[in-house]
């Protein structure tokens, strides 16, 4: 039997949807033992309090980031406001070759670019239970001005309408339920008709 290919799992959501919380919860000790890992993005923004280089992000200056682009280091990269963000290819290619599950926490723009580069990737979109809940979550952060909050909320509403461009949608009303659903999606994805092992099926049904 041929070796199982690793899985790339792209998790996206509007700001406040909960994709980061889901990814953190997914990387429990038991999941890590099964080969679940997290793709650490590279960014030019400054490190925030409590963040550690190599854990939340790989922090670099703008010149270094541009050099990495020229070396084709990123599977996708983009600029948000004043800062650049990119997903290194290394972890993705290594996961496909060696096995395991690689989680990526990216916005919709990054998700679409990654899916184009890695069409075998699983795409999951996380929705808040309601627009009201989304607004409450964004306000609860308390890190932005009223104008910044308004812009972020309007952008989130626009991104929510892109849900049908993803293979799966999870409604994040209960964090644990959402995490369980993502695990179910990842484990069941190979059973989709288009993903079946054709050689195995041919041996069974002829």
Strand-residue proportion: 15-25%
| CATH topology type of the domain at 7-39 and 100-205 | Rossmann fold
Query: Briefly, what CATH class of the domain at 7-39 and 100-205?
Result: Alpha Beta
- Helix-strand sequence: EHHEEEHEEHEHEHHEHH
Main beta sheet: strand number and arrangement? Answer: 5 strands, parallel
The CATH superfamily of the domain at 7-39 and 100-205 turns out to be P-loop containing nucleotide triphosphate hydrolases
Query: What is the general shape?
Result: globular
Q: Low-confidence segments, ≥5 residues, pLDDT <50?
A: none
Rg for CA atoms: 18 Å
Tally the beta strands.
9
Main β-sheet, spatial strand arrangement: 2-7-1-8-9
Helical stretch count? 9
Q: Give the name of the CATH architecture of the domain at 7-39 and 100-205.
A: 3-Layer(aba) Sandwich
Helix content: 40-55%
Average pLDDT across residues?
A: 89
Q: Termini distance?
A: 17 Å
Helix vs. strand class: alpha/beta
């Amino acid at each position: 039997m041929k070796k199982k290919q690793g899985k790339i799992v792209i998790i996206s959501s509007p700001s406040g949807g909960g994709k980061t919380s889901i990814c953190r919860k997914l990387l429990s000790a038991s999941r890590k033992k099964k080969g679940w890992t997290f793709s650490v993005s590279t960014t030019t923004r400054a490190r925030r309090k409590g963040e550690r280089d190599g854990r939340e992000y790989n922090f670099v200056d703008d010149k270094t980031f541009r050099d990495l682009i020229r070396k084709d280091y990123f599977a996708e990269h983009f600029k948000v406001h004043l800062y650049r963000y990119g997903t290194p290819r290394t972890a993705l290619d290594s996961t496909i070759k060696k096995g395991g599950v690689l989680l990526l926490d990216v916005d919709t723009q990054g998700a679409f670019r990654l899916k184009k580069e890695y069409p075998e990737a699983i795409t999951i979109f996380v929705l808040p239970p309601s627009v009201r809940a989304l607004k409450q979550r964004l306000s609860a952060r308390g890190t932005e001005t009223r104008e910044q909050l308004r812009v972020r909320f309007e952008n989130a509403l626009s991104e929510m309408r892109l849900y049908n461009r993803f293979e799966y949608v999870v409604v994040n009303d209960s964090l644990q339920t959402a995490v369980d659903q993502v695990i179910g999606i990842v484990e069941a994805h190979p059973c989709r008709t288009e993903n079946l092992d054709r050689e195995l099926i041919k041996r069974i049904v002829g």
